[in-house]
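Final report, Chapter 2: Outcomes

The project's central promise was a pipeline that accepts a single protein chain and returns its three-dimensional structure in a standardized token representation, suitable for archiving and comparison. That pipeline is now operational. To close this chapter, we reproduce one record exactly as it appears in the project archive, with the input sequence first and the structure output second.
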Amino acid sequence: MTLGLDILLLSVDPDLQIVREREYTGHAMRAADLIELVVARRVELHGRWVTWVTVVDARPTGEPLLDAALAELGTSGKRLMPTDWMSRPPGAGAVEEGLAVLAAQGAVRLHSRRLNSRRTLTEATLLDPARQARIRARLDRFAADEATADVLDWALAGLVYERKSSWSPATPMWTVSPSWKVPSSSRTASRSLSSRWMTRRSGRAP
């Protein structure tokens, strides 16, 4: 289970049976992959004025989605900044690949939703609400005691906060516990997932 899959599973609306905020979810998944690769010491961030992503260890992590991201970074034809990687249009990539993994794990059942004559989306019916609830509980634990959180807890909280801040007031906050409040320190540290934030915390044990 990767951080990106946690974010994707949180995005599955159990009532509407769709992936909410699909474009942002794809970008957040790519950001999560990069953070996990930094923590796993497969990539590093270098540079003073401009920060570049550098693959330092191309060995597989054992997580197929992370390994695919690592391979993509390693074969890129140009140097990439973290924002380049995060903001690449996910298209039929991150979300659909993640949904396929979740379906294979029995967490969701996939179905097609036709938007128009030219576009059909792969959507998901939640089959494992307990697993989604465990991710929400992880966020609750972070909010209650961020001092004991590890780098991936911080990353998850930051990415979910950025997602929440992009919703309109009319959007139901179904993905997190109603009592969950993001600490101000997390909002400050994680906004835009700056490369300095990832570098500073990547040395902590996952």
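Archive annotation: The first strand starts at residue 12 and ends at 13.
This record, like all others produced under the grant, will remain available to the consortium after the project formally closes.
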